Amino acid sequence: MAQTGLWLRWSWRDLRRRWPVVTAIALVIALGTGTYAGLLSTSAWRTQSNDASFALLNTHDLRVALPSGSTTEEGRLAAVVASLEHAGDVAAARERLVVPTQIAGPGDLLVTGELVGTDTLPGAAVDGVHVTRGRALGAADDGAGAVVADESFADKNHLTVGSELTVSGGARLEVVGRGQSPEYFIVTGGQGGLPFLTQKGYGVLFASLHTVQRAAGADGQVNDLVLTLRPGADRARVAAELSRALEIAQPPLAADLTTRDDIDAYRVLYDDIDGDEQLWRIVALLVLVGAAFASMNLTTRVVEAQRREIGIGMALGVPTWRLAVRPLLFGAQIAVLGVLLGLGVGWAVSIPLRDVFVGMIPLPIWRTPLQADVFAQAAVLGLLLPFVAIAWPVWRALLVQPVEAIRVGHLAARGSGLAPLLSRLRVPGRGYRQIPVRNVLRTPRRTLLTAFGIASAITTLVTTVGLLDTFGATLDRAEAEMLHTAPDRVSVALDTFQPLDGDVVRTVEQLPEVGSLEAGLRIPAVADPDGEGVDLLVDVLPAGARWQPTLVDGQPDGGLLLAEEAAADLGVGVGDAVTVEHPQATATGLRTVRTTMVVAGLHPNPMRVFAYLDPAAADALGLAGTANVMSVTPAEGRSADDVRRALLEVPHVASAQTPQAAIDGMRTTLDEFVGILNVAALITLLLALLIAFNTTSIAVDERSREHATMLAFGLPVRTVLGMTAVETVIVGALGTLGGIGGGYLVLRWMSATTISDVLPEVGVTASLSATTVVGALLLGIATVGLAPLFTLRRMRRTDIPSALRVME
Amino acid sequence: MEGVAEPRPAVDARAGSEGTRIDLDGVCRYFQVGDTVVKALDDVNLHVDESAFVVALGASGSGKTTLLNLIGSLDAPTAGTVRLAGVELTTASRAERTRARRSTVSFIFQSFNLFPGLTALENVQFGADVAGRDAPETVARQVLESVGLGDRARHFAHQLSGGEQQRVAIARALATGNPILLADEPTGELDFHTGVQILELLRAQAEAGKTVIVVTHNREISRVADRVIELSSGRIVADHRPVGGPAAIADLHW
């Protein structure tokens, strides 16, 4: 091209003249691509961190666990392993005693948890403990009252080295260190039978095997063995041999054999990466789409502003492709700046995200390097977006007849489309005061473009903040259901099945802190095990229990009461039959059986796991006359905490928790989960502000000649400014309302698809809080309403003759 | 693909006698405004086949700007044919019309239409470059000197007076080297003295062998024309040469 230098100079002047717009559009794109890069980097971080953390502590390959409440002699499980044909494949094996307990400590600390006792023999540990503070356990601690407390539990309950703890049965233990172990990197519903636990409310204490044996009153007993295999060993072959050896063991060993993949923390930590990535990808795409749409909107306006110059070029016979050069150079400026800013935003976004993850998932090793491939993807998107955004308006501008393009006042109302119809509408006010409304009605395309720009930002914001609302509303529903009656009750879990008229029940009943007691059963089960496989916690409530589930359909007795979400997932309704896999008591112990049960009713708790059976329908369990849970009402003048402390001294009490504490646990769990959404919400808020302000600012620029005319006719600046504000507020309100509607629709779609995949155990219904709606309205309308104020200085200093000249 | 560097078409003024020829036959241009059809031009026949200073005279709304737009292929007629330098514009493709504009006509607008982001020199250089002339910057400097603005070369449009802007616009048109100049009310936004300067410039171009068509509502200007076409309500109502030949520009007053 003969005049490359001229075009580049021209473009540079465009940039200098329009740098605020260029920077703003680039920043919009940068927020989109940066958020995309930041959010999607987290998957790689988590995978790398998981791999490193599980490898560091020799996470077991196989685990043998005896049924809850049963034990065997120390050394017996190790002997079974030693007898295997390929025992040489076993690198290390450790016997353990893992028992549920309650833990009391400094201040008001009183939580449920586990004591994990492992031998302190020299050699490679299995499921080792990575000590973060204090010291590790050594041979000298064998049988002593020294424990290493789970780091997260200790941190959140302010336990320090030297803290004194008391566990169920009254044993006193001293914290000598804080640490992390693979099975407890995060605590999940699979441990202790409680569906939602947090590291704050669930304590794990690591001690020597003999220490735990003494604390649990189980001298010489173990109930668990973990082993690792040598590199290259055939895990399936060793597992098969071990399974066979356990089956033929005499006396019988009814043990569960599981692998590393069955570790709840392992499974959840890896599975969640995929599920979460799905959610983050949608959030990132939402931000990206919002940014893309907004940048398209903004560039359209910029190209429209150049349209007359394009027309002049046409009149001079400039080839079409060459007319496109200048706006494309404008796009290139945005692209380059957008990519540079995007890298910065991505890096900035990754900092709070890293903090959220490190706080949420306490792994011993966190690897959070810059994900070059994700950032490269984002950079490509950042480069392409401005060109895609600019292609359409340029194409439109080049298609018009030159005489149209060159026309003075091309940005003014046109007598086509909806404009003639809308201009007939009656509007309030008289004379020039009608101008703002008339402007909105006479230029429907421009009105819609501005409104869409604002709507895209508000949609993204409402969706992201709406996710927080949705989770909050879900918990509120759960809370309302669990606390609708008897909110003062304490749910007590026992570590074994106890006779209703046995010592444990009687002891609890006779505690002075206890007013009344209802003994029942809580059984883990799986509905439709060959199909949907919905995990359930089935509570058998005694007749006339103080708390009963609310019914949304069906009868309270005669079968299974399922959560609506569970019934929907299983595709069953009231009166339908469902196969349930559950433990059943036999003369020789518990065995797993399948029973066909009738769905008697549905309850509204959004937590899918909760299910209920009336005592008559519980015959299939074979546990008549026994209990493993109790609902305790405190005596007059006593609190739930009094009851919980009193229960600490009672053997076989595994946990004691108020329903409020359970709800708080769920809230904490979900709060941690939505921590990342808070980051995304903050970004979308910034994006919304930026888009709304820029869209309005450009709209005000387009009206500069009209404003100059008004000023020339003697209208004061405040009146012109007021009229501008009215016009932008109308458009802002339109855009905001559209954005709220759009956000709600996206939220509903996400609730029905992505969230139900990511959190299948929770029945989430899209919900927008009044605060979000009012906040979005205020943000959308106030931002665009205030935007003209930023033009006050410019308007005051308007050179009226210059502004009135035709040059645009 | 269109391009500035490709050879000029055979109908180029500099390549043959049809270079300045303009033929309009039965040309109509109607606009639909709401329920009303506005006949901006109605059955216009016009033939210009010589280098001359032609003035199209008419009141506002008579159709003179529409006529200029059609000659310059900025717009397409509703009916009839327009031929410019031998090229049938009515059936020409978009690219052919662009090429015709690039190689045959140059516009001078009432409102100047300079590119605000370019200096005076660059605006003129732009015209020379678009038309595919060699050494466009040199050409631009020469032309800018010839309109008396050599010392304002580095000024932007907003730093120039109206008369200076119009002279830059004329320089841009001249820099193309195209044989036909189309000027739409070139003195419309200028004072008398500046307007006279502009007319002198345009008149000089006609005397140098170009065809200059000026549309105006100012009857006084028609006194310096070689040929006057009068329009009213979209029709040519008179087509004549001033009696006694064109008057001297110095005799004009308005």
Distance between the termini of chain A: 27 Å
Number of domains of chain A: 4
Fraction in helix of chain B:
25-40%
Shape of chain A: elongated
CATH H level of the domain at 50-78 and 103-247 in chain B: which superfamily?
A: P-loop containing nucleotide triphosphate hydrolases
Number of helices of chain B: 6
Strand content of chain B: 25-35%
Q: What overall geometry of chain B do the principal axes of the alpha carbons give?
A: globular
Question: Can you tag this structure with a few keywords?
Answer:
heterodimer, A: 808 residues, alpha+beta, 4 domains, six-stranded mixed β-barrel, six-stranded mixed barrel, 22 strands, 19% strand, B: 254 residues, alpha/beta, Rossmann fold, six-stranded mixed β-sheet, four-stranded antiparallel β-sheet, 28% helix, disordered N terminus
Summarize the entry for a quick read.
Chain A has 808 residues and is an alpha+beta fold. Chain B has a domain at 50-78 and 103-247: 3-Layer(aba) Sandwich (Rossmann fold), CATH 3.40.50.300.
Report on this model:
- The complex is a heterodimer of chains A (808) and B (254).
- Chain A is of the alpha+beta class and 808 residues long.
- Chain A has 4 domains: 1-57 and 270-410, no CATH class; 60-262, no CATH class; 418-484 and 664-808, no CATH class; 488-657, no CATH class.
- Helices cover 50% and strands 19% of the residues of chain A.
- In chain A, the strands form 3 sheets. A 6-stranded mixed barrel of chain A has the order 3-4-9-6-8-7. A 6-stranded mixed β-barrel of chain A has the order 14-15-20-17-19-18.
- In chain A, strand 3 (90-104) and strand 4 (110-118) form a beta hairpin.
- With 254 residues, chain B is an alpha/beta fold.
- Chain B has a domain at 50-78 and 103-247: P-loop containing nucleotide triphosphate hydrolases (Rossmann fold, 3-Layer(aba) Sandwich), CATH 3.40.50.300.
- Chain B has a 6-stranded mixed sheet with strand order 6-7-8-3-9-10, sandwiched between helices. A 4-stranded antiparallel sheet of chain B has the order 2-1-4-5, covered by helices on one side.
